[in-house]
């Protein structure tokens, strides 16, 4: 396991060379955010009909993985299969994997006006698939900001649910188990696991923060909770295009294109092995 990079001592005075380098880096961060935002807004969905057998053929390539963590763009799935995209994909995932994991993130817990997390009713914010999956999952982690929804028997019993990005936390378990990450119908790669790497490797634009609130386990059982999670010091955007290209170059990421429907597949531990050296060489690698 990688050790966290020690905090850097900040000098009282900054020499002109360092100031110029910092300015150049900041320009790259802002420029990347602008470019990625523009590319996302200008993207047009060009997905044609896809045979169900073609999707099954892709999933069959990963049948050795009992567990999959998925990110989904339902609009492209609907265009490809002309059906209820949520039920269709849920059923196809069930047919190929024993355990299906989905992010159930509730960033509202960071809001000081309402820090309450209910495991049954707190609605995931990111993605319609996650929202619908809440009713179909068998289990949800106790993490008040970055919970994971599970359909199947996979559990996080020995993990620290309240230190989100710790090696002892739930995302650390995904790394240890080298869980398959699968993006279906997303315009770029999606990987909540990258947050884990940012905190693990102590990138300079992320801090860890404790949030005090209440967790409800059911309609009546509740208690106070302190959730440690991440916070960005400024608005940033990952350079997903660069990350995808580098992961493909390393042979870590496989890109399947089915008549315009994109699928990206990679493993959690292999993601760390590929990206950690780059982040250690350039702590702003992900965002420039």
Automatic annotation (TrEMBL):
The keyword Transferase applies. This is Aminoglycoside 3-N-acetyltransferase. GO terms for molecular function: N-acetyltransferase activity. GO terms for biological process: response to antibiotic. Pfam families: Antibiotic_NAT. InterPro entries: Amioglycoside_AcTrfase (IPR003679), Antibiotic_NAT-like (IPR028345). Keywords: Transferase.
